[in-house]
Amino acid sequence: MKPFARVIAVAALALVAACSPGMDVPEESAAAEEGVFATIAPFRSHGAVHDADNVEAMRPRIMGTHGVISSGHYLATQAGYDVLRAGGNAFDAGVTAGMALKALKMDYAGWTGVAPLIIYSAAEDRVITRVGAGTSPALATLDYFLEHGKSPINNALIPADVDVWLAALDRFGTLSFGEAAQPTLRIAEEGYHLYKMQKWMTEDQTEEILAFPYNRDFWFPNGVGEQRLGDLMVNADLGRLIRYMMEAEQQALAAGRSRSEGIRAARDAFYRGDPARDVDRFFREHDGIVRYEDMAGYESRWEEPLATGFNGYDVHAGDGWSQGPRIILMLNMLENYDLRALGYNTPEYIHLVSQVVNLAMADAHKYVGDPDFAPAPEGLYGKAYARERIGLIDENRAFPDMPPWGDPVRMAAVAEGAPASFVVPEGQPVAAAPEHRGSDDADAGAPSFDTSSLNVMDGEGNVFSLTESDGHTFTPMIPGWGFGLGNRMGQFNLDPDLANVMAPGKRPRNTNSPLLVVKDGEPFMGLSTPGGDQQMQCLLQVFLNVVVWGMSPEQALDQPRFGSYNFPATGSEVNRNPAVLYMEDRIPAETAEALRAMGHDVRSWGLWNWRAGAPTVTWRDPETGVMTAAGDVRRETASLGF
Predict the structure, then answer these.
(1) What average pLDDT does the segment 282-292 reach?
(2) Which of 106, 175, 297, 526 is deepest in the core (most CB within 10 A)?
């Protein structure tokens, strides 16, 4: 057989094996009665199986001993990889790739917006997080929003990402801002090729883009509806911003100031220089509420993350300004169960995990917000409270609505006075909320709040895990500077009884949170994902796939997912999707039917769906020390290592 024909034949056999449920598994795997293959066999998630111990994933395993990186775009991954190859550490590579990634994702994770970061520093031997959600303007009062409502102009939050990048670079990196920003400058000025997801996003958001002339000119340089795959996307004004910041750093260094002071000068150029003045001017002209003083006064901080133990692993996440608390609540409840005894992605397993998700969402809805304004009640993140809450789970019946929140102070499974229902009474109108615009289309608003992610590990033991978000299709970009402020204040609540209620100078409980996992005192895994309110559900499933089910990172990403929508979307007070549970169709149909019999409103995500999340992951083998980077096939992630 000729070589090319042999390749085609092998590929065809692999396709048949992966897609044909009636086919027997390859002979060499027939003896695999346990282990990863036996676990995932019913879900047809594997390609060719060469032997019982080698289950092929949809992408190759990317390994390294010096450094590994995975991000939401191949050019960002390449930028960070080049830094690692040149001798930079994970923080140099992470900041370089993070800035580049946002230049490539202006539609849903662009300059500028939120950027929650969690890192492990080998030099300091600690896990620490940079607060990556900006603050609301001084004029962002609850009364103002109750009168004027949320809108693309009103919802602009002070950007956090520039602060996060430069703080990480200053404290943990070795590069200057100018060195780290070079790949982003080249992307902005020379352009990148329009890719499938971004082309679809701009087509989906065309009407919103046209509301702002500067956005229109940026997104449709060849005319509305004329964009093609591969078109060159140039952001010369973002290049101007980067050069402006570089010049501020160079002036500081020329004056004899330190590397740290030079980085601070670049930061001040953004938050206190001409870009901030033009932000003020733009929002005044459009009856917005962002002012120069809001930009100039913005400061973030390093802080200890939240953490919990789960079966010998320590899981770290950001505090109430992020989605991190949700996974702490989920893991505390799940630790009380023998998950392996339930079987992988069986009706019993999916039911339990979804009910734990619903309980966590209820407590987060009530109690989790910016801890500077709404400290978590005592006991909320404790194991004893988790045991109280799981008493509400019926192993045979799904919650028909988001369950009521509990009372951790009194150790009560249900708080006195907690609402019995979060669903809009029939016939009562309600304004559309972000992300959930109706029970018939649970994901309708997802592009408005989407995200990208980045993870890096290096041979020194450092870990960098970042979630970046806020796009600029339906929210305005600042003319002349090539960046926008996003829409993140839309994720504040307008109910004064909730912790996440709108207030001036407050950080919203935004839907982003990277995770960092430690095993026996050593960094084990960093992971983050896009996906809005699905983020922690997605990362939870990937984490369990690795630590409970023994999968490699790339296999853990490939497996079919499910996601509950039985809760109010972040920023809403209303549950528009009671009992809704989405699942990818690689989960057997009989499993879906069994879940419907339990009361779940099961809906299809198709075989693979980008709305189920698309994590990037780094992982260190505890036995060999070899590092692995993996990216989800559901989106355009890319990984490299050496």
Answers:
(1) 97
(2) 526
Q: What is the tens place of the pLDDT at every residue in 14-48?
A: 333 333 333 232 333 333 456 766 776 677 655 43
pLDDT of 166 above 80:
yes
Which has the closest alpha carbon to 575: 405, 442, 394, 446?
442
Q: Collapsing DSSP states into helix, strand and coil, what is residue 500?
A: coil
pLDDT in tens, 356-388: 999 999 999 999 999 999 999 999 999 999 999
Q: What is the DSSP string of 409-471?
A: TTTBSS-TT--S--SPPTT------SS---TT-TTTTGGGG-EEEEEEEETTS-EEEEEEEB-
- Residue 379 contacts residue 369 (beta carbons within 8 Å): no
> Which DSSP helix (H) or strand (E) runs through 582?
strand 580-583
Secondary structure in 3-state letters for 383-416: HHHHHHHHHHCECCECCCCCCCCCECCCCECCCC
State the SS3 of 229-290.
CCCEECCHHHHHHHHHHHHHHHHHHHCCCCHHHHHHHHHHHHHHCHHHHHHHHHHHHCCCCC
Give the C-alpha separation, 266 to 254, whole Å: 13
- Residues 271 and 282: their CA atoms lie apart, in Å, by 15
Contact 299, 372 (CB under 8 A): no
Distance between CA atoms of 182 and 96, rounded to whole angstroms? 8
SS3 assignment, position 327: helix
CA distance 332 to 381: 8
Find out whether 256 and 515 touch, Cβ atoms under 8 Å: no
Q: Do the Cβ atoms of 535 and 35 come closer than 8 Å?
A: no
- What long-range pairs does 16-25 form, CB within 8 A, spacing at least 24? 17/46, 17/47, 17/48, 17/49, 18/44, 18/45, 18/46, 18/47, 18/48, 19/44, 25/49
Of all residues in the chain, what percent carry a pLDDT higher than 90?
83
| Two structure tokens written together for 242 | 């980067």
- The answer to whether 58 and 79 are in contact (CB under 8 A) is no
Rounded-to-integer distance, Cα 185 and Cα 240, Å: 9
**Distance between start and end Cα atoms, the chain:** 35
Burial group, residue 394, by CB count within 10 angstroms (0-12, 13-18, 19+): exposed
CA dihedral 94, 96, 99, 104 (to 10 degrees): -100
pLDDT at position 2 is: 37
Q: Are 526 and 317 in contact (CB under 8 A)?
A: no
Other Cβ atoms closer than 10 A to 285: 8
Produce one character per residue of 261-279: b if its CB has 16 or more CB atoms within 10 Å, e if not: ebbbbbbbbbbbbebbeeb
Cis upstream peptide for 112 (omega within 30°): yes
Q: Are 492 and 133 in contact (CB under 8 A)?
A: no
Backbone angle region of 432, left / alpha / beta, with phi > 0 → left and psi within -120 to 50 → alpha: beta
From the list 520, 544, 531, the residue with the least C-alpha distance to 622 is 520
Contact at 8 Å (CB) between 591 and 345?
A: yes
pTM: 0.89
Q: State the pairing for strand pair 580-583/601-604.
A: parallel
Q: How far is CA 132 from CA 51, 69, 443, 494, 530, in A?
A: 45, 21, 25, 22, 15
For residue 450, the model assigns a pLDDT of 73
If one counts every other C-beta atom within 10 angstroms of the C-beta of residue 476, the result is 22
Distance between CA atoms of 372 and 396, rounded to whole angstroms?
A: 40
Query: For residues 336 and 393, what is the distance between their CA atoms, to the nearest angstrom?
Result: 12
Dist CA 411 CA 388 (whole Å):
7
